[in-house]
Specification:
Distance between the termini: 28 Å
Shape: elongated
Number of strands: 18
CATH class of the largest domain: Alpha Beta
Structural class: alpha+beta
CATH architecture of the largest domain: 4-Layer Sandwich
Strand content: 25-35%
Helix content: 25-40%
CATH superfamily of the largest domain: PPM-type phosphatase domain
Number of domains: 2
Strand order of the largest sheet: 2-3-4-5-9-8
Order of helices and strands: EEEHHEEEEEEEHHHEEHEHEEEHHEHE
């Protein structure tokens, strides 16, 4: 299944608290809409204009109005500065669907960058006129490995008067992007790299608002977690089967749970004592599984890390079970948690109305949804 990994970043113009650009991603059933708008000028006024433009476009597209009608409505609505003869805001729109079909529309903004097999690929733009404004549009058939990038003028003009007398320029930005994208790098890593380079080219606070949006096209990543024994032992074979036939990576949390899987899969469970810490029991290994951990202690620490904003980078070199599972969760797009509801007296607080595993699973789900992950819980 095609998946669109999206990321963006901004830097406000020198001496301005608000960025005069606005960028919005909206997703629905694996379809993604991206809107980037650059407001005329900078500061509060530009921010209001850009935000108004992105919200108008996103709201209408989310209500499934045809893209052509949406663009026509917005271009008729956007006023033109009488002094400069320029529109008060420009925009780029990308509508991308789960079957790989895509549509790009641009009005007076830097042209999108499209890469296939790490090579810059020309887009077949068609032009039309809406309310005396020239609109560019093109269709796409995307596949895993493709990349799309959208930037505001502040990226193109970086370094103007310095290292690049006329600014970094579209071609140089394209060359930079092409040399930094690959299968292993994330969309956010590319965004961060571009922002760092832009900051260096400006040699200080930028002379224009800077915005970049990156979309990486790849296969969707799945992860299934089996957490705790089922309430009825007769369900053990069924839940193990659900785990082992699940797509993507498979994780088992809990010693008793791991033994259930080992017994029904006729596999050996090995424990890696070198991964033990003062707080968390060691990792385990079993053929057919990507990770085996202890249960409640590991999950409690994991939820705590997510709730306090810890991420994979902060735990990059940690080998404990919670950090390892955190990295796997950040890589995944769709997570399913199979929660066994058998009560463990050692973990049950008599003051709580629910079993602690159930509560931990709900907290994990909430934390993952806040990170824009799909997360579904099934109870047994």
């Amino acid at each position: 299944m095609i998946y669109y990994e999206c990321a963006s970043g901004q830097i406000s113009k020198s001496h301005e608290e608000l960025c005069g650009d606005s960028v919005v991603f909206s997703s629905h059933h694996n379809d993604v809409t991206m809107v980037l708008s650059d407001g005329l000028g900078s500061g509060v006024k530009a921010n209001i204009l850009a935000t108004l433009t992105t919200r108008m476009l996103t709201c209408m597209l989310d209500n499934e109005l045809p893209l052509s009608e949406v663009v026509k409505t917005v271009t008729e609505t956007l006023p033109v500065c009488k002094v400069r003869g320029l529109a008060y805001s420009t925009f780029s729109v990308a509508q991308l669907f789960s079957d790989g079909e895509g549509r790009l529309v641009e009005f007076d903004s830097p042209s999108a960058f499209y890469f296939r097999d790490r090579s810059l690929t020309e887009l077949n733009w068609e032009t039309s006129s809406e309310s005396q404004k020239i609109i560019k549009a093109c269709g796409l058939k995307l596949r895993p490995g493709d990349w799309l990038a959208f930037v505001s003028d502040g990226v193109i003009s970086a370094g103007i008067g310095g290292l690049y007398p006329l600014g970094w320029g579209w071609d140089q930005v394209a060359h930079y992007l092409g040399s930094h994208i690959n299968e292993q790098v994330s969309a956010q890593e590319v965004v961060d790299s571009v922002l760092d380079t832009v900051s260096n080219l400006y040699a200080g606070p930028p002379g224009d608002d800077v915005t970049i949006a990156i979309i990486k096209v790849r296969q969707k990543r799945f992860l299934t977690i089996f957490f705790g024994p089922p309430l009825d032992p007769k369900d053990d074979p069924f839940v193990v089967e659900q785990l082992m036939k699940s797509e993507g990576k498979r994780v088992v949390c809990g010693g008793t749970t791991a033994n259930i899987v080992a017994r029904h899969q006729h596999k050996e469970l090995e424990v890696d004592l070198e991964t033990m810490t003062e707080d968390i029991p060691p990792l385990g290994h079993m053929e057919g599984l990507d990770l085996v951990t202890e249960g409640v202690l590991t999950m409690t620490r994991l939820v705590g890390m997510l709730q306090t904003g810890r991420n994979a980078n902060s735990q990059k070199y940690a080998v404990d079970s919670s950090s390892t599972l955190l990295r796997m969760l950040e890589e995944a797009d769709s997570i399913k948690i199979l929660v066994g509801q058998a009560k463990n007296p050692a973990h049950q607080d008599p003051n709580l109305p629910v079993e602690i595993k159930t509560e931990l699973a709900r907290e994990l789900q909430d934390a993952l949804i806040k990170k824009n992950k799909e997360c579904k819980i099934e109870y047994f």
